[in-house]
Structures are given as C-alpha cells and as structure tokens.
Amino acid sequence: MFPWLSHVLVNRSIRFKLVLGFGLVLQLTLVIAATGWYALQRSIDHSEQLSLMARLGQITRNVRSQRMAWRQLDDPQSHAELEPQLAEIERHLETLHGRIREPLYQQRLAQQGDHLRALRSTLGDLDPIHGNPDEADRLHERLENLGQALLDGIDALSQAQTQKRDQDANLSKRMLIIVASLALIIGTLSAWVISAQILIPLRRSLKIAEYIAAGDLSRNIRVERGDELGQLQQALQRMSLGLRELVVGISQETTRMASAARELSDNAAQTHLSIGHQHDEIDQVATAMKQMSSSVREVALNAEATAQATSLAEQQSREGDRAVAEAITQIEHLEQEMQQCTEAMASLQQESDKIGGVLDVIKSVSLQTNLLALNATIEAARAGEAGRGFAVVADEVRCLAQHTQDSAEEIEALVAALQHDTARVAQRLDKSRNLTRSSVEASQHCGSKLEGISRSVSRIQAMNEQIAAAGEEQSVVAEQVSRSLLQVRDIAQRTAATSEKTATASAELACQGSRLQGLVGHLRA
Q1: What is the DSSP letter of 523?
Q2: Residue 310: per-residue pLDDT
Q3: Residue 262 has pLDDT above 70, yes or no
Q4: What is the CATH number of domain 228-521?
Q5: Cα(68)–Cα(73) distance, rounded to whole angstroms?
Q6: Which of 41, 372, 479, 515 has its CA 20 to 30 A from that of 331?
Q7: Alpha-carbon span 351 to 349, nearest angstrom
Q8: CATH number of the domain at 3-203, out of 3.65.10.10, 2.40.128.20, 3.40.190.10, 1.20.1440.210?
C-alpha cells in the first residue's frame, strides 16, 4: 500500500519502528489535548467576558434607577452613589477592553466608553443648574438617552459575545472531530504498517525454522532486510548452510566407511578361504609324513626291501617338498592379505577420526545457534509485549539447536563405539599377521626338514649297509616333521578363527555405518 514507507522502514530496527508508531500516537494525543485545552480556554474566556457584561448591565440598570430616584425624589444619597457605580462601569469596560482583541468589539467598547464619559459629564452639568427646572429636565432627558444607549450597547455586546461563544464552541467541536478522526486514521495506518513490518518477516522466519526442524536443508533463504528480523534470517541461513555442508560431509564419510567395511569383509572371507585350503594341504602333508614314517620303519625291519622302500621314500619326499612349497606360497599370500586388511583398518580408523571432527563442527554450530537464540530471547524480553512473537521464534530456534546437539552427541557415541571396534579388529589383525609369519617360518622349517629327508634317502641308496641306522634316523626326522605339521595345522586353525572374528567385526562395522546413514538420512541437503 505504501511501498516507499516499507522501503524506508525495512532496514530500520524494531525499536525504531515501535518508537515511531507510539510517537505518532502520542503526538496525535497531544494535538487532541491541545485542541481540547484551547477550546476549554476559549469557553472560559467567553464565560468570564459574559459575566463581566452581565455585571455591566446590572450596574447600568442600577445607575438608571438611582438617577430616576434622584430626579423624582431629589435624594442626595442617590446622587452620591452614582459616581462609584459609574467608576465601576469604567473599570469593567477597561477590563473587557484588555481581554477582547477583536477590532469590532474594541470599537463597540470604545463607543460605550464615550457614552459613559458623556453620561458622567452630563451628571456634572446638573449640579450648577439645579434650580432651573427646564434645563434640568433637558439634561435628565439627555442622561436618559445616554443611559439607554449605554445599556443597549452592553446588551448588544452580550448578544454578540454569546454568538461568538457558540461559534467558537461549534468550531472547537469540529476541530476535535477532525483531529480525532485524523489521529484514528493515522494511528490505524501506523499500527498496520508497523505490524506488517514485524509480523510478515516474523512468520517467514518461523516457516524457515520449521523447514530446518523438519530436516529440509535444501531451501535457500533470501534476506533483504537490515533489522533484527533480517539478522535472524541471516543466522538461520548460516545455520542451514552449515548443517547442509555437515550432512553432505557425514554422508560422504559414511559411504566411504561402508565401502571400506565391505572391502574388509571381502578380504576376511578370502583369508578364511585361503586358510581352509592351507588346512587341507597341511593334512595332506601330515598324511604323507605318516606314510613316510611307516615306510622308514618297514625299511629298518625289512632290509630286503630296502631298494623299494628307498624309491618310495624318495617319491614321497618329493611330494612333501612340493606340498611344503605350496603351503609356504599360500601362507605368504595369506600374510599379504592380512597386511592389506591391516591397512584397510587403519584407513577406516582415519575416516572415523574425520567423522569425529565433523561432529565437533556440529556441536560448535549448535552452541552458537543456542547462544544466538538466547540473545534473541533477551532482545524480545526488552521489547515487552511487542516482542512476544519474536520470543516464541527464539524459543523454537533454541529447541532446534538443542535437538541438533543431542543428535550430534548420539552420533559421537556411535562413532566412539565404531573406533573402539576398529581398534580391536586392528589388534586382532596384527595378531593374525604375526601368526601367519610364524606359519611361514614353520613351513620353511618343514621344507628344510624335507630336504634333509631327501638327502637321507640318497644316502640310503648309496649305503645299503647302513639301512637300519639310516631308517631309524629317518623315523626320528619324520616324527619331528609330523609334529611340526601338527603345529602348523593348529596355527592355521587359530588363524581361521581370527579371520572369522575379523569378518564378524567387519559386518558389525557395516551395520554401524548403516545406522549412521539412517541418522543423517532424515536431513535433506
């Protein structure tokens, strides 16, 4: 309705708007009071002037009565009382002359003064000719005319003053009606404009806060104001942008964490499969070693079958060497896989630490928003009744900040649990890697033993006369190899158990990542 006025007030503070509105109302109230006071003062002046004129009329009539008594009764006392009454009439005329400023009334009062002076002069002329009846009658006739003229003039002044009083009263009524109407119109327009300047942006700020509370962070807030409500909208815009960046960062980190967890789970599954193959190979090697030990005992007991047993032992030794070589290769591959798992767990722990940094940003933004809402509540309390709606918005913003802080603390607890589980998995992977290294060393030791067996078989072929002693020695060596293979199998079983625990921890880590994604999923950036 008044775009120029809205443009002027849009960058002014709420205090300025309220002071402007109430100032206009107070000024209009002062104008109404001044108009009423002026009308009342005019009415009082007219009443006093009419009272003086009524007194003048009464005195003039008394003078006329005393003059007639003096003429008819020749009463000296009546003649003596005329002069004080004429002096009183003169004083009243001078008083009216000083109070009434209108030229017309000034002229009429001057005429009444002339009549009064002529009347007093005529009364003075009666004393020397008191013994001449004709001249006295002529002067009394003149006095009668002057007295009547004075009385008529006073009555005319009274009527004119009465009309003036009525006109001023009507004029005062019209002025009061006009000023009151203008005050009502201007006050209503001021209240409407100022309330529109406050309520409309306040409702917009409340709607923005409701969007943020509902998790909708995708809306951009356009701020075109410079007052406190504009500052509130700017604060909401900054909070929305901060939360939006935070949600995007958490979503990206959560996605990477879930991917790392899946990769770790796949590596654990492959490790478990490799350990199963290793267990089968070790069983085969153990079986071969048992067969070789049995063959050695048969060679010791049966010297006649030395050549055949030696060939069989040589063949089994070669198979055992190949099996041990394959076992060493598998265990080295397992060690590489465990190293990759350890690196993946370290990367996962770093990503978890990044999430903790993002949570610190969330708590900082929530604390700043809470402080801003508290400042807005204090400003609303200072504004009094007019700031009640602003206080409601400030409370809503403070509740939103508290809710955000609670969510951040819950996420922080989940991340702490995730970091703890990650550390445990890393420790178990370190143990598995150490066990794998031990398996490699044991397999290499087995290979060395098998090489010794091969050399022993060669010596058996070269020295048939020492078949019994060599067979006994080979039996001892075979038993040692069997015990070593049993140890390797136990290590492989423990490694398999550790791998299963790693897979379980990876699955739990993936579940925690899914829960974290669910927590930030209701926020739309």
Answers
A1: S
A2: 66
A3: yes
A4: 1.10.287.950
A5: 8
A6: 479
A7: 5
A8: 1.20.1440.210
CB 398 within 8 A of CB 370: yes
pLDDT of residue 407: 73
Q: Angle 427-430-431 (CA atoms, 0-180°, nearest 5)?
A: 90
216 Rama class: left (phi>0) / alpha (psi -120 to 50) / beta: beta
Place 200 in a pLDDT band, splitting at 50, 70 and 90.
confident
Q: Which of 369, 370, 383 is nearest to 227 (CA)?
A: 383
Name the β-bridge partners of 216: 524
For residue 91, the number of C-alpha atoms closer than 13 Å in the C-beta half-sphere is 8
pLDDT single digits (tens) 207-225? 877 777 776 666 676 766 6
> What is the arithmetic mean of pLDDT over 253-271?
72
Q: What angle do the packed helices 228-301 and 133-213 form, to 10 degrees? A: 10
* Host H or E run for residue 255: helix 228-301
Q: Is there a contact between 491 and 439 (Cβ–Cβ < 8 Å)?
A: yes
Cα 60 to Cα 43: distance, rounded to the nearest angstrom: 25
Q: Are 281 and 327 in contact (CB under 8 A)?
A: yes
Would the CA dihedral through 364, 370, 374, 376 be positive or negative? Answer: positive
End-to-end CA distance of the chain: 37
Tally helices (H) and strands (E) across the chain. 9, 0
Alpha-carbon span 417 to 403, nearest angstrom: 21
Give yes or no for a contact between 510 and 255, defined as CB atoms under 8 angstroms apart.
Answer: no
- Asked whether the beta carbons of 398 and 380 are under 8 A apart, the reply is no
Q: Taking 50 as the threshold, does the pLDDT of residue 128 lie above it?
A: no
Q: Return the minimum-mean-pLDDT range out of 261-265, 277-281, 298-302.
A: 298-302
For residues 316 and 299, give the distance between their C-alpha atoms in angstroms, rounded to a whole number: 14
Which range in 17-21, 30-34, 140-144 is most confidently predicted, on average pLDDT? 30-34
Q: What are phi and psi of 216, to 5 degrees?
A: -90, 100
- The Cα–Cα gap between 390 and 373 comes to 10
| Rounded CA Rg of the chain | 61
Query: What does the alpha-carbon distance between residue 394 and residue 417 come to, in Å, rounded to a whole number?
Result: 35
Cβ atoms of 113 and 89 within 8 Å: the answer is: no
For the chain, domain boundaries: 3-203, 228-521
CA atoms of 391 and 384, how far apart (whole Å): 10
Cα four-point dihedral sign 157, 161, 167, 168 = positive
Distance CA 184, CA 105 (A): 38
Alpha helix (H) residue ranges in 384-466: 388-462
Report angle CA 498, 502, 507 to the nearest 5 degrees: 150
Alpha-carbon distances of 187 from 48, 179, 350, rounded to whole Å:
37, 12, 65
